[in-house]
Amino acid sequence: MGLARASAMIAAGTLASRVSGLARTMVLVAAVGSVGRAGDAFGTANQLPNSIYQVISAGILTGVIVPQVVRVSAQKDGGHAFLQKILTLGATLMAVITIAATLAAPLFVDLFASNYSGPQRALATSFAYWCIPQLFFYGMFALLGEILNARKVFGPYAWAPVINNVVSIAGFVAFIVIFGGDQTEVSAWTTPMIVVLAGCATLGIVAQLVVLMAFWRRLGIPLRPDFHWRGMGLGAMRNLASWTLVTTLIGQLVGIVQQRTMSEASGDFPSVFASQNAWLVYMVPYSVLILAIGTPYFTRLSEHAAAGRHDELRGDISQSIRTLGFFVVAATAAVAAAAVPASRMFSNSADSAVLIAPVLVGYLVSLIPMAVLYIVQRTFYAYGDARTPFVFTVVQGALVLVFTLLIAAFAPQEHITSLVALAQSTAGIAQTMLATVLLRRKIGPLGLGPTWLALVRFGVVAAVAGAAGWGTYLLLGSSEGWMLANRFTGAAGAVIVASVVGVVYVAILALLRAPEVKAAIARIRR
């Protein structure tokens, strides 16, 4: 499958996943509210399996599994024997870790949200017992999906989360029908309410794994246990995984400090749940663009590195960053201009939307640098180097930690969450700059001069387009207008504002005869 077709397959699936994910969150907010202690309790509990999964699996899968699968695919059996062993090993580890983490649910809640009151902490713990089992299914879904990606089967991994969202939406709608919506008061929650809400969230994760397993059978690789792990190179993988594990652990430790800081604002101001919803909006362009375009490139970068084709690898780095830049710069301007109506989709009032919008803008500051970092970081992984990403992640983590502690000490509660988001973005920019310098030292000149100039050109045009989108928002009434009347008008308003930005952006670049416009249109058509 070519890069354009693979990117289109991933983008289409990811877009469907993210759009259905937005709908899922809108229903969830209708059930538990956007700013309140019950919503923050659920947000904390439902984030736990993701956070633990990131520590245990994410870095190892991305940094270790994909390059290994690319290498063993050249074996006579296509690497089938190796894949059976790695799946058995992964399932065993995830099962043991999931059981231990579920038993430790009260400790994890205290770790992430020590500022919660006794009743709010108890509610979060009850949610956690139902949510943490998601960890096993997240891990197996990611393991199967990364193997499929490494073998250039990109579609199922991108599309399966849609099933998760459909199942969750059905469950949350049932919750509202049975128990009513806007359940923000901790004292109102009963055991059946907890079981329905958190149980349906977990059932959605199970469903997406089942779908992926159905596609897995088409590869002809049996899902049989194979515990003969000796001789599969665990020593080499362990050395590589140790760096990615520590790298991810640092990020999660910093995340704990961030969540504990944001939890101080729980109740009256945007806090943990509002931050997660803003992050969800941020992840729409990140997933649809950065992951969709970057994932096929990562597979090809791994192939170039394994074959020693260094010139081709440098060319792909430049091409991928430039392609990503064209789309991501426009997306940043569009979402920033539409931040308030977009936030209204995940809030129960116009006032809450205005409070949440700065959180979204704070995260958006890093969207463009994260596109560059995605490619740079995975180039290190393609060369089997997980130590250098550890170095620049430590720097980023240290900066976030310092910024967050300053925010906790001096910021007023109403601004804590938006400042935490901005602090993360600022540290991410520094991380990207350092990572690029270190990559140049590793493989020599990257030849990115024309690429940086293209990004600057995109940025200037996007600023003009963003101003046009913001002007549209003001002309249509701003916070007093129809856009903030309800969630659906918020969605419509966000689409209108973002569309204005996109049209102006493309029109200006077309008038300037930017070559990227023609290439982007061709990519979209393919």
Protein model, in words:
56% of the residues are buried. The chain has 2 domains: 232 residues, no CATH class; 291 residues, no CATH class. It is mostly helical and 526 residues long. The radius of gyration is 22 Å and the shape is globular. The chain is 81% helix and 0% strand. The mean pLDDT is 84. It has 20 helices and no strands. The longest helix has 36 residues. Helix 2 runs parallel beside helix 5, helix 11 packs parallel to helix 14 and helix 12 runs parallel beside helix 18.
Fraction of residues in H or I helices = over 70%
Low-confidence stretches: none
Number of strands: 0
Largest sheet: none
| Overall 3D form | globular
Strand content: under 5%
Summed up, the domain count is: 2
Averaged pLDDT: 84
Helices and strands, in order, run as HHHHHHHHHHHHHHHHHHHH
The end-to-end distance, rounded to whole angstroms, is 12 Å
Judged by helices, strands and strand pairing, the structural class is: mainly alpha
The number of helices is 20
Work out the oligomeric state of the chains in this entry.
single chain
Gyration radius, to the nearest Å?
22 Å
Keywords: Cell membrane, Cell shape, Membrane, Peptidoglycan synthesis, Transmembrane, Transmembrane helix
Transmembrane segments: 52-74, 86-107, 127-145, 157-181, 193-216, 237-258, 278-299, 320-340, 352-376, 388-410, 416-439, 451-476, 488-512
Membrane topology: Multi-pass membrane protein
Pfam families: MurJ
Question: In brief, what are we looking at here?
Answer:
The protein is mostly helical. It is built from 20 helices and no strands.
